[in-house]
Amino acid sequence: MVLRGPRQLEVMELDVPPVRAGEALLRVEACGLCGSDIEQYEGHMAYQTPDAFPMIPGHEPVGIIEEISPEAERAWNVSAGDRIALVPHLICGRCEHCLRGQSHLCKGLLPIPRSQYGFMPLSYGHGLWGGYSEYIHLHPASLVCKVPSEVPARLAVMYQALAAGLRWAVAVPRTGLSDTVLVLGCGQRGLASVIALRAAGVRKIIVTGLAKDAFKLEHARRLGASDIIVVDRENTVDRVMEITRGRGVDVAVDVAPQSSQPFLDAVEAVRTGGTIVVAGIKHPAAPAQLNLNRLLYKEITVQGVFTQTADFYRAAVDLLVRTLADVETLHTHDVALNDVTYALDLLSGSVPNSEAISIALHPGV
């Protein structure tokens, strides 16, 4: 399925190129969807310039190694027939970001704006760069994570959400076992943050959502959230102060997209000396009217985060195996690849009487 422009997805057939030194061919079993897929489809990504189209979307693919060169087999420690999850970023390993351990920010490898599976144009190389496809041709600079065969592909697509939870909610804010954490947003990344926090031993987890998110908020409670706040029926900051007896939370993780209000709530809800992690991509037309003195007087640490490094993807696969029963509860839909626009509508909440959290696209179904 090729994205020719905003909201223009269509079927296209491309030749599968030969596997050369350092390369491999991945047969896609399933591809996950997240909020970035919706933004990409609607043309809201800042780097989606006209020359970026057409492209094959899909940055959360899981599949079977169909063919692999000896060089790639040695480098990645996988063989033909292995199931793998694909790290979306292509990295050079030599730029300042890579050398600082920030390889997910690497921009030094390819002569295109975005060196990431699911976002590279057809005009670059062979064009088979996305998970909305039967096959992905793997670049020598790829990184892969082997997935145990007992993990179904439809559940394995949650590896990126879990990697986000591990990095954003645990590692970046250096969350401690006794910390109280506020997760603003109960979508896929918010729920994965609850799983990651519980796995890290955190027991005081507050999750927010809207009244229309009742299905997701119930999942948050089942996954281990200690408190739920329905933000269009309750005042978020007042409820946090009630729960924490006026102290505030140690860590606030803003995974809510579009609206800036969750960040403003986080500034008021976090304790003096606390940390806010900002992960939800905000709509350009929704600027935050922030009193900067609140950051100063409370000495709040604010950290923006954007995706993950390979070590978090590998850790996420391990977490996936350990929490498979929890992940199973979050899987709501399996959709044929040709019906991807329906899947995107499901995820965006625009299909009446349907509740979606984790959706897996399947080629050939």
What does this structure look like?
α5 packs across α11. By secondary structure, the protein is an alpha/beta fold. It has two domains: 196 residues, Quinone Oxidoreductase, Chain A, domain 1 (Alpha-Beta Complex); 145 residues, NAD(P)-binding Rossmann-like Domain (Rossmann fold, 3-Layer(aba) Sandwich). Strands 3, 4, 5, 6, 7, 14 and 15 form a seven-stranded mixed beta sheet that branches. α13 links the parallel β14 and β15.
- What is the count of β-strands? 15
Order of helices and strands: EEEHEHEHEEHHEHEHEHEHEHEHHEHE
CATH superfamily of the largest domain: Medium-chain alcohol dehydrogenases, catalytic domain
Largest sheet: 7 strands, mixed
CATH topology of the largest domain: Quinone Oxidoreductase, Chain A, domain 1
In whole angstroms, the N-to-C terminal distance is 14 Å
Helix tally equals 13
Question: What is the CATH architecture term of the largest domain?
Answer: Alpha-Beta Complex
The level of helicity is 25-40%
Q: CATH class of the largest domain, please?
A: Alpha Beta
The radius of gyration is 20 Å
Tell me the count of domains: 2
Class inferred from helices and paired strands: alpha/beta
* Bulk shape: globular
Mean pLDDT across all amino acids: 93
Poorly predicted runs: none
**Fraction in beta strands:** 15-25%
Please provide a brief summary of the model.
This protein is α/β, with parallel strands linked by helices and 365 residues long. Helix content is 30%, strand content 22%.
Strand and helix map with partners:
Elements: E1 2-5, E2 8-10, E3 24-32, H1 35-42, E4 61-68, H2 70-76, E5 83-87, H3 96-99, E6 135-138, E7 143-146, H4 153-156, H5 159-171, E8 180-184, H6 188-199, E9 204-209, H7 214-223, E10 227-230, H8 236-243, E11 249-254, H9 261-269, E12 270-278, H10 292-298, E13 301-304, H11 310-322, H12 324-330, E14 331-336, H13 340-348, E15 358-362
Parallel strand pairs: 8-9, 8-11, 9-10, 11-12, 12-13, 14-15
Antiparallel strand pairs: 1-2, 3-4, 3-6, 3-15, 4-5, 5-7
Helix pairs in contact: 1-13, 5-6, 5-11, 6-7, 8-9
